[in-house]
Specification:
mainly beta, five-stranded antiparallel beta sheet, three-stranded antiparallel beta sheet, 1 helix, globular, binds zinc ion
């Protein structure tokens, strides 16, 4: 089964493979660093740009992400998260 295939009429949530979620080709797992469509309001000192790197710290019916720049935590429903995620910047499983 091509799990990354988009399913028409689906609200976004397709299913889980252990801790991983698949949505429109974006697969994210706990501790991944993701980029959102809207950056955080805080600014990265080194670059002067708005921070847009969030670590997934909770993955359940609700999702919690933490701004890697200022530590601010945002919680939202999985459905919301699937709408707001842009891409995965760093896979937790690629740390080794
Ligand atoms: Zn921030």
């Amino acid at each position: 089964m091509p799990l990354t295939r988009k399913i028409k009429g689906c609200t976004g949530y397709v299913g889980t493979v252990s801790q991983a979620s698949i949505f429109g080709g974006i697969m994210y797992e706990l501790n991944d660093v993701v980029e959102m469509k809207k950056p955080h309001a805080c600014v990265v000192k080194q670059t002067g740009k708005k921070a847009n790197a969030w670590e997934v710290i909770r993955l359940g019916a609700d999702i919690k992400i933490r701004c890697t720049n200022c530590g601010h935590i945002v919680m939202m429903s999985r459905q919301d998260f699937n709408k707001k995620i842009k891409k995965v910047l760093k896979k937790a499983s690629e740390n080794n």
